[in-house]
Amino acid sequence: VEILVLRETAAGERRVAATPETCRKMSAAGARVGLQQDAGARAFLPDAAYVEAVIVDDAALADAAATADVVLCVQPPAAGVLQRLKPGAIVIGLLAPHADPERAALYVSRSLTAFPLERLPRTTRAQAMDVLSSQAGMAGYKAALIAAERAPRFFPMLTTAAGTIRPSKVLVIGAGVAGLQAIATARRLGAQVEGFDVRPETREQIESLGARFLDLGVSAAGEGGYARELSAEERAEQQRRLAEHLKGVDAVICTAAVPGRPAPRIVSRAMVEGMRPGSLIVDLAAETGGNCEATRPGETVEIGGVSVIGPLGLASSGALHASEMYARNVWNFLALMLGEGALRADFDDELIARTAFSHQGQQRG
Ligand code: NAD
């Protein structure tokens, strides 16, 4: 079995889909691993650290692609690489097929078995393969650090000869994987933290991190443990209570998302205008449109002394550990199919069947 690990080409992407550790595991399972030259360099994993892998230089990439049984990546591979793959080759990564119809068509027309890992069902068995969770954890952590770093105040309470400093009040909106990590991180920095989510079960999770659950009187548990979109009345009620509350908050970290939908708009421009100068918003949902109306992806907007920060690629900014976790997730998924030097995708396994986007020339969803 030949496995090819690609070097990422997307702007700002620093992660890599395999580490020296996972290459060792793939090789122990009987695979031959080719690593595109410098694939790990931007995650501080030099080629020399990949003892088990053969380094594929750029001149040899086309040939390596033509013989690969499995291609591992973070972002979707370039069309030129996909066009070289043999029919039946497996592609594993954050492939976002619906974001690019042309590339999606290639997976089907080239008879590739594409596994966009974002489609992985979020069952207990899939946890060790869940790249959305592992990458969201890094993003939430970094979001809290950005808030602390950009704030014109301390996060912790301080008692000093120059008097007492009160702790910052931090509100985390959305308490999924990223939000809970943001809460835990802001707490470690000593802030007074509140969390808010529409899924009622998050109350206990927020409180177990030593934060307070902010009750805005809206509950919207949806299917499969996710949130559903709010009705117009629910939204209005949430908005009214939140606007009042935000007047006393120093930093807001937004992480709310609804699968397959644009990010819910939760913080309006008027709410930002009502906040105190020197407070700030870090909108982790910037990539999917933002939870705050004023957010501009990749930029910081100032409104009446309030900074609205829309960071992009936060998981990538922690590339070393983000790659370590991503690579282990990928390995755990690949291990479902790889054994004793042979590769077999069992479509009776729901993790395989539900994750696959294309197989044997058919699109599956
Ligand atoms: P996500 O990124 O889709 O959403 C982030 C959070 O935003 C969610 O908690 C959601 O409830 C919240 N949200 C949505 N609309 C909102 C609104 N209008 N106001 C406030 N908050 C809003 O979610 P995620 O972090 O990927 O995962 C969500 C949950 O799924 C997890 O917390 C967990 O319970 C479950 N999950 C289970 C597994 C597993 O068992 N394998 C793995 C990962 C996640």
Description:
By secondary structure, the protein is of the alpha/beta class. Helix content is about 30%, strand content about 20%. It is built from twelve helices and 19 strands. The strands form five sheets. It has a seven-stranded mixed beta sheet, covered by helices on one side. A six-stranded parallel beta sheet has the order 3-2-1-4-5-6, sandwiched between helices. The protein has a two-stranded antiparallel sheet with strand order 7-8. Helix 1 packs parallel to helix 11 and helix 5 packs antiparallel against helix 11. The longest helix has 20 residues, at about 130-150. The protein is elongated, with a radius of gyration of 22 Å. About 45% of the residues are buried. Nicotinamide-adenine-dinucleotide binds near residues 123 and 177.
Q: Name the beta content range.
A: 15-25%
The helix content, as a percent range, equals 25-40%
Give the count of helical stretches.
12
Bound molecules: nicotinamide-adenine-dinucleotide
**Number of distinct beta strands:** 19
What's the main sheet like?
7 strands, mixed
State the distance separating the first and last CA atoms: 27 Å
Give the overall average pLDDT. Answer: 95
| Low-confidence regions | none
- Strand numbers in spatial order across the main sheet: 11-10-9-12-13-15-14
Catalytic activity: NAD(+) + NADPH + H(+)(in) = NADH + NADP(+) + H(+)(out)
InterPro entries: Ala_DH/PNT_CS2, AlaDH/PNT_N, AlaDH/PNT_NAD(H)-bd, NAD(P)-bd_dom_sf
Protein name: proton-translocating NAD(P)(+) transhydrogenase
GO molecular function: NADP binding; oxidoreductase activity; proton-translocating NAD(P)+ transhydrogenase activity
